Amino acid sequence: MRSRTLVDLVAVGAFLVPLLATEVASAQQVVYVQPAPVRPVAVEEPDGVRFRGAIGLEAGALILTGAGGVGGGAAGLVGPIGQIGVQINHNWAVYANPSLDIIFGHAGGFSIGSGVMADYTFDAMPLSVAAGPEATIFAAIGTAGAGSLGAGALYGVRLRAAYYPILESGPRRRKGLYIAADVKLESFDGVLFFLSPIASVGYAAF
After folding, report:
1. How would you class 155 by CB atoms within 10 Å of its CB: exposed for 0-12, middle for 13-18, buried for 19 or more?
2. CATH number of the domain where residue 117 is located
3. Please, what's the b/e burial string for 31-48 (b: 16 or more CB within 10 A of its CB; e: otherwise)?
4. What is the pLDDT of residues 49-104, one digit of tens each?
5. Residue 10 lies in a domain
6. Residue 133 forms part of a structural domain
7. What is the rounded CA–CA span in Å between residue 193 and residue 156?
8. How many independent structural domains does the chain possess?
């Protein structure tokens, strides 16, 4: 009789132990730790001093305004133009802009010019503006109202606005196609004054 009672107690214990373990496990709380959100880190393109260069083709007009009692006249000009200088940062640059133009129409000959331009490129749009002094040496130029000017030098300023319809931005340098509109205001011997509206297209790396 005692052995049977002992067997019954063992059987009841074997039945109750898993139930108690289940209850204890269900009573334990599982705590989940929410990981901190990962914020994206903005990666800025490297900036700094680097070489700036460009090559293009310009075309426009050489207009004599008629100052100093001399009748006005106009001629066309076309030729290559370039940029050689320093890109200080993404915005500012300083460069020379040599040009070689063939002059035709009421005048005939050629001109060689260059200037120093301070250039600013905007961050929010592919557009830049520039200005600086420029000098042009011309040869065998004649105008209908002023007779033959022979050869000489023009001094003045050049204003420029350039748009980049195709612009590729690399890790440090930008490059692409530009379309520019320039205006040159120059004088000859302090008497004759010239206005030159010019359009150009080319490739720039800056």
Report:
1. middle
2. 2.40.160.20
3. eeeeeeeeeeeeeeeeee
4. 999 999 999 999 988 876 544 456 788 999 999 999 999 999 999 999 999 999 98
5. no
6. yes
7. 9
8. 1
